[in-house]
UniProtKB/TrEMBL annotation:
Intracellular or extracellular location(s): Endoplasmic reticulum membrane; Golgi apparatus, cis-Golgi network membrane
The keyword Lyase is assigned to this record: no
Organism whose genome encodes this protein: Sapajus apella (Brown-capped capuchin)
Protein name per its UniProtKB record: Exostosin-1
Role summary: Glycosyltransferase forming with EXT2 the heterodimeric heparan sulfate polymerase which catalyzes the elongation of the heparan sulfate glycan backbone. Glycan backbone extension consists in the alternating transfer of (1->4)-beta-D-GlcA and (1->4)-alpha-D-GlcNAc residues from their respective UDP-sugar donors.
Gene this protein is translated from: EXT1
Length: 746
């Protein structure tokens, strides 16, 4: 038996070798005869196209890169496989393979930075209110330019938000209108905003015209059609979404345990047929009417009765029993199933209500997923595993639930509460892609105060910002720079500014003193300034305007800034105590003179008051300590219109700084112990040189309050009744036991 097997193996091997030699010989003879024909043809001056060789031929040099969306237009010499053709043709838009490296011209951004140009509105073109809000947000931002030659990014004035052909907002003939734009350039460096695409019955993601190489800022975009690091997924928002500001989140107290009346809720339409119907039709399997309340109604549309099923009447009756707002505000988790499209209004509603979203929309690229870690704020479910949702959310620990709810509030207020924030977040993401060397990291985007207020142009090191000391294990700065704002000439050695300079210089925490000379008179000679143990630098203010006191001067070498008016009266002890308090609250303004705001019902406007009460919302920068990053933010984040107003009035710069810091931190400033004579000292300053003596000064500040609130879109100032005093302050104990004993003697 073994001998037969050996004979069979030898016979098979011999047959294989014979076949190999036979076919190899044919190939060798064919190649030799082919070479002879070529040689003969070349001798006779003839050349015939030869068939492909048996061995592969490699090109001498690499071909230049061709964007995928241009493959169909290139010469036929560029070979495209059938699979590549099929993939390109099956795309909803031709530039499916576009990335920043292949479909974006970075050279436009190198000269003038990240500037955005909005096409001028064409006569007769209708623009929906939502798109008007988007364009207004861009035009009001620091990125906007009216000069297309300076632009890095271009945005259409043609309304592209609603591309549902059945919608009254649908813009017809958009294809030809876009192609006629002289700056279109096949969409290169263009950004297109879109909320709705496709129509009944399949609701595809086709926007109805060739976007070329343009980027999409699109709601309800699928992971299949989303081009990573090129498109931006934005949330679906309603036409009533505020343009600026927006309401704050509804989480008022961090209660433990963080459980509410309902564990899981949903209330919305149920689609009987068509795309998006499967998930919502199955919700009744999970509804228990107690802590899991999932309500649907098929009572929508004109022909709903023609298509209603056996559950419709019962569902409609149950649907009417519950108030949606009451459910939303009393639920721990909110179900966010897909609708006809992947996105849903329920997403933003849940975020604002501090109701943890439970996503049931397979394939949805979540909003701003490039920078936001949604695992910290939502539960990502699977439509195919609907029945497991209740047990899954019940297994989440209470500490985790509280953390999820807190993150929903941060994300809502940082990126989603207004159209302006949605637009600015989109632009900041694109800017980070262009300037990768100074782009924000995940910590900045997912931690307070968020990516919109942390400008990477200031520094690429997190330790240079006042918000991340704890995360980095760093201690707050141990020294400060005193910046004294001088506006009156130096005529006497007994002037308050010189006494203030000496008092600040004696502080153990003072590193240097900068005198900002905003006076019309020439700089005093060096010998006019008193001798101190720390350096004294005198610099002239830029253009002699009020905003120059908040410029990010390179001379400021410390992170902490002690801002002082020339007529402020402070002792060294008070300076020391204020700085030690600030070290515990480095992101806030800490200081002495406090003011407050209120709503005047009779005039329906914000009011400003300097009354001495136990309530305050501002600490004036005439005697306050804050982080120097706010100088950079004041100069580069705020619009020129507000700073010009401050400069024209020579007033309100301290109010504007308080608005800015409170908007960033969502916290009030901190007032420290006031010395007894401060009020009397301020009341006694009635000289014409003091702006406090100006009768129009108070009226101007009232007007500033309302102008600032209008630009921010809401009132960022927050009231506080907290005042920090030294330990044993005014206690009936020996003065020798008190560290800041001089404060009580003043």
């Amino acid at each position: 038996m073994q001998a037969k097997k050996r004979y069979f193996i030898l016979l098979s091997a011999g047959s294989c070798l014979a076949l190999l030699f036979y076919f190899g010989g044919l190939q060798f003879r064919a190649s030799r005869s082919h070479s002879r024909r070529e040689e003969h043809s070349s001798r006779n001056g003839l050349h015939h196209p030869s068939p492909d060789r048996f061995w592969p031929r490699f090109p001498d040099a690499l071909r230049p890169f061709v964007p995928w969306d241009q493959l169909e237009n290139e010469d036929s010499s560029v070979h495209i496989s059938p699979r590549q053709k099929r993939d390109a043709n099956s795309s909803i838009y031709k530039g499916k393979k576009c990335r920043m490296e292949s479909c974006f011209d970075f050279a436009l951004c190198k000269k003038n930075g990240f500037k955005v140009y909005v096409y001028p509105q064409q006569k007769g073109e209708k623009i929906a209110e939502s798109y008007q809000n988007i364009l207004a947000a861009i035009e009001g931002s620091r990125f906007y330019t009216s000069d297309p030659s300076q632009a890095c990014l271009f945005v259409l004035s043609l309304d592209t938000l609603d591309r549902d052909q059945l919608s009254p907002q649908y813009v017809h003939n958009l294809r030809s209108k876009v192609q006629s734009l002289h700056l279109w350039n096949n969409g290169r460096n263009h950004l297109i905003f879109n909320l709705y695409s496709g129509t009944w019955p399949d609701y595809t993601e086709d926007v109805g015209f060739d976007i070329g190489q343009a980027m999409l800022a699109k709601a309800s975009i699928s992971t299949e059609n989303f081009r990573p690091n090129f498109d931006v997924s934005i949330p679906l928002f309603s036409k009533d979404h505020p343009r600026t500001g927006g309401e704050r989140g509804f989480l008022k107290f961090n209660t433990i345990p963080p459980l509410r009346k309902y564990m899981l809720v949903f209330k919305g339409k149920r689609y009987l047929t068509g795309i998006g119907s499967d998930t919502r039709n199955a919700l009744y399997h999970v509804h228990n009417g107690e802590d899991v309340v999932l309500l649907t109604t098929c009572k929508h549309g004109k022909d709903w009765q023609k298509h209603k099923d056996s559950r419709c009447d019962r569902d409609n009756t149950e649907y009417e029993k519950y108030d949606y707002r009451e459910m939303l505000h009393n639920a721990t988790f909110c179900l966010v199933p897909r609708g006809r499209r992947l996105g849903s209004f329920r997403f933003l509603e849940a975020l604002q209500a501090a109701c943890v979203p439970v996503m049931l929309s397979n394939g949805w690229e979540l909003p701003f997923s490039e920078v936001i870690n949604w695992n910290q704020a939502a539960v990502i479910g699977d439509e195919r595993l609907l029945l497991q949702i209740p047990s899954t959310i019940r297994s989440i620990h209470q500490d985790k639930i509280l953390a999820l709810r807190q993150q929903t509030q941060f994300l809502w207020e940082a990126y989603f509460s207004s159209v302006e924030k949605i637009v600015l977040t989109t632009l900041e993401i694109i800017q980070d892609r262009i300037f990768k060397h100074i782009s924000r990291n995940s910590l900045i985007w997912n931690k307070h105060p968020g990516g919109l207020f942390v400008l990477p142009q200031y520094s690429s090191y997190l330790g240079d910002f006042p918000y991340y000391y704890a995360n980095l294990g760093l201690k707050p700065p141990s020294k400060f720079t005193a910046v004294i704002h001088a506006v009156t000439p130096l005529v006497s050695q007994s002037q308050p500014v010189l006494k203030l300079l000496v008092a600040a210089a004696k502080s153990q925490y003072c590193a240097q003193i900068i005198v900002l000379w905003n006076c019309d008179k020439p700089l005093p000679a060096k010998h006019r300034w008193p001798a101190t143990a720390v350096p004294v630098i005198v610099i002239e203010g830029e253009s002699k305007v009020m905003s120059s006191r908040f410029l990010p001067y390179d001379n400021i070498i410390t992170d902490a800034v002690l801002s002082l008016d020339e007529d402020t009266v402070l002792s060294t002890t008070e300076v020391d105590f204020a700085f030690t308090v600030w070290q515990s609250f480095p992101e806030r303004i800490v200081g002495y003179p406090a003011r407050s705001h209120f709503w005047d019902n009779s005039k329906e406007r914000w009011g400003y008051t300097s009354k001495w009460t136990n309530d305050y919302s501002m600490v004036l920068t005439g005697a306050a300590i804050y982080h120097k990053y706010y100088h950079y933010l004041y100069s580069h984040y705020l619009p020129a219109s507000l700073k010009n107003m401050v400069d024209q009035l020579a007033n309100c710069e301290d109010i504007l700084m308080n608005f800015l810091v409170s908007a960033v931190t969502k916290l009030p400033p901190i007032k420290v112990t006031q010395k007894k004579q401060y009020k009397e000292t301020m009341m006694g300053q009635t000289s014409r040189a003091s702006r406090w003596a100006d009768p129009d000064h108070f009226a101007q500040r009232q007007s500033c309050m309302n102008t600032f609130a209008s630009w921010f879109g809401y009132m960022p100032l927050i009231h506080s009744q907290m005042r920090l005093d030294p330990v044993l302050f005014k206690d009936q104990v020996s003065i020798l036991r008190k560290k800041y004993r001089d404060i009580e003697r003043l």
